[in-house]
Amino acid sequence: MLNKFPIWKYLLIVAVLAVGFLYSAPNLYPDDPAIQITGNSTAQQITQANLDLASAALKEAGIEVKGLELAAQGKGGLLRLVEKKDQLPAKDIVRKALGGDFVVALNLAQTTPQWLRNVGASPMKLGLDLSGGVHFLLEVDMEKALDARRKVYEGEVKSLLRKERVRYRSLPELNGAIQLGFSDEATLEKAQRLITADYRDFDITSLERDGLQVLRLALNQAKVAEIREYSIKQNLTTVRNRVNELGVAEPLVQRQGANRIVVELPGVQDTAEAKRILGKTANLEFRLEAAADASRASTESFDFREPGRPPVQLERDLIITGDQVTDASASFDENGRPQVNIRLDNHGGDLMNRATRSNVGRSMAVIFIEQKPVSKLVRKVVDGVEQEVSVPSFTEEKKIISLATIQSPLGSQFRITGLNGQGESSELALLLRAGGLAAPMYFAEERTIGPSLGADNIAKGVTAALWGMLFVSLFIIAIYRFFGVLATIALAFNMVLLLALMSLLNATLTLPGIAGIVLTMGMAVDANVLIFSRIREEIANGMSVQRAMHEGFDRAFSAIIDANLTTLLVGGILFAMGTGPVKGFAVTLSLGILTSMFTAIWVTRAMVNLIFGGRDFKKLWI
Question: Whole-angstrom Cα distance, residue 276 to residue 337?
Fold first, then answer.
């Protein structure tokens, strides 16, 4: 029978529309401005007492708190505010009330009902131009980068001298220069020849002090400039990798000046986690346990992270560091304890194999290194007014997380245990996988940024889209009468499906994306125009109403497919080659093409079949 769908097609259309309404519904619930609190490490817990203290400080300052939320197992806390303008002062108040052991960040808290969240429904993300976001300015500590590189060089130089059996005495650094002491001038000259042959990056000077011949190795200016440039580029790459690992939509990460990095995150989603991960410097060192008769100058004492265990003397020389890690993943060992599976590069694998092959039976320690940001409140005169200013700095913490006996030579793959829970193993794997920071960074600036085009312009854009939809609907109703009403209903379904699809795919809506939605409206109606015009032509040619409707949909199908596929191809090219706003336009355009083809061909025809199919109409209102 003409113009009749089988029952399964009707059920499929109803199911798709129901899913569309379900997953587009969260966009009706706007987010609350909020302050998020987490610990400096994954092992640190947030308690209700911490939230109560922060809430009391805000109320005392006259900032209204809408509600408090404590995450499961104390992983974080959230203070919902009433006004968005209160976020920045509230963050400073909470940070001062809780002290420096917590990460306090700006956020937006979802108001989506729990039953929608339970089925995975969430509002679509908005770009910086629509919702604003958070702006971080990270400053790289170049002196730490130079110190780290000097330590690497110092270890390599001492290893070279030991290999060539040149006796030396370790001396403390002086003004950034490595110092080595020798018993006589001949030994010093031999050491200088060896070092000069392998290392071209030092300005080498010698002097006599306290009966010792002292060789001083200072990095030359060219090498210092190279290290500084490498540090900012490495940190920039690492920050990008970490942002990608966090899954932040449409972020902006770019260099600013000689030692700063700008990070902008749209929508301010879980920025406490982002803030903690972005600036965290976590690295590893692998060292052998010192022999009982080792000299004090060649050893160093380290504490365990686990309380109650006595400190251990380790060799000062490093086997490898976390910089040689190429891949890391978190898992569990045979006893259900968290571990991190490590894969090293070729050079790191060779160093590890060489060190463990000749030291089977000795113990090797894994040291976890963390640069913890601290801030001190100092009184300074700013614009003629004395006030407390927070000055950022770092404190380095090195503690043993694992000390195990080497049973057999190790290669480029092994595992690390002794971590404080699954959260820490996942975080360490993420940091190592994304790449280590060449130098620690601190947050020189953090602020919320409003929509770049202004709320008024955005409101006008949305209003223009609504007026456009209204005029398109009135036009098609005036031209095609009742069929125009059906096309308008299908257009409304199309918008619902498009919002649902963007929410499901975590696509980011930008202002150019709104332009793509408006273009989608025109294309959806255009498909219906092709169908309805074809039906009119067939009726004018003397064809029966039922046959005309059937032929109208069938013969217009190929033209609709061709037109939409060419546009979809252009959308794919824009997405592949464009950036930022261009991608936002391409996403909504491409998804809109898919939804408009479904609503124009399937939904509209289903409504036509239900109303007109199988009935004897002599005249059609079209």
Answer: 24
Pairing of strands 125-126, 65-70: unpaired
Residue 322: the pLDDT is 73
Q: Describe the chain by its helix, strand, coil percentages, rounded to 5.
A: 50, 25, 25
17 and 497 Cβ atoms separated by less than 8 Å: yes
Query: Residue 585: exposed, middle, or buried by beta-carbon count in 10 A (0-12, 13-18, 19+)?
Result: buried
613's tokens:
């199919």
DSSP assigned state of 295: -
User: Sheet harboring 338-344: ordered strands across?
Assistant: 325-332, 338-344, 413-416
Question: What are the strands of the beta sheet with 102-109, ordered from one edge?
Answer: 65-70, 77-81, 32-39, 102-109
Given a contact cutoff of 8 angstroms between Cβ atoms, the answer to whether 51 and 79 are in contact is: yes
- Per-residue confidence (pLDDT) for residue 436, from 0 to 100: 62
pLDDT at 33: 82
Separation of alpha carbons 300 and 294, rounded Å: 10
Cα–Cα distance for residue pair 144/227, rounded to 1 Å: 11
- How remote is the C-alpha of 300 from its chain's centroid? 37
The amino acid at residue 265 is L
Q: What is the spatial distance between Cα 46 and Cα 68, in angstroms, rounded to a whole number?
A: 12
Average pLDDT, consecutive stretches of 10 residues, N- to C-terminus, the chain (622 residues):
82 93 89 81 78 90 88 80 82 83 77 87 77 78 84 83 86 86 88 86 86 88 88 83 65 85 70 63 80 84 84 88 78 81 85 87 84 65 65 73 82 75 70 67 72 62 81 88 90 91 82 83 83 87 86 85 86 80 83 89 89 76 72
- Give the strand pairing for 385-405 and 299-304: parallel
pLDDT attached to residue 390: 64
Q: Which long-range contacts (CB under 8 A, 24 or more apart) does 317-320 make?
A: 317/155, 317/158, 317/159, 317/287, 317/288, 318/155, 318/285, 318/286, 318/287, 319/286, 319/287, 319/288, 319/351, 319/352, 319/355, 319/364, 320/286, 320/344, 320/348, 320/351, 320/352
* CA 505 to each of CA 14, 23, 554: distance values in angstroms, whole numbers, following the listed order: 21, 11, 32
Contacts 24+ apart (CB under 8 A), 461-468: 461/511, 461/514, 462/514, 464/518, 465/514, 465/517, 465/518, 465/521, 468/518, 468/521
User: Which structural domains are found in the chain, ordered by start?
Assistant: 7-26+454-612 (1.20.1640.10), 143-223 (3.30.1370), 284-417 (3.30.1360)
Give the total residue count for the chain.
Answer: 622
The pLDDT of residue 493 is 93
**Cα–Cα distance for residue pair 280/140, rounded to 1 Å:** 12
DSSP string, 372-435: EEEEEEEEEEETTEEEEEEEEEEEEEEEEEEEEE--S---SEEEE---SHHHHHHHHHHHHHH-
For the beta carbon of residue 566, count every other beta carbon within 10 angstroms. 10
pLDDT of res. 452: 53
Four-point Cα dihedral 468, 469, 475, 476, nearest 10: 150
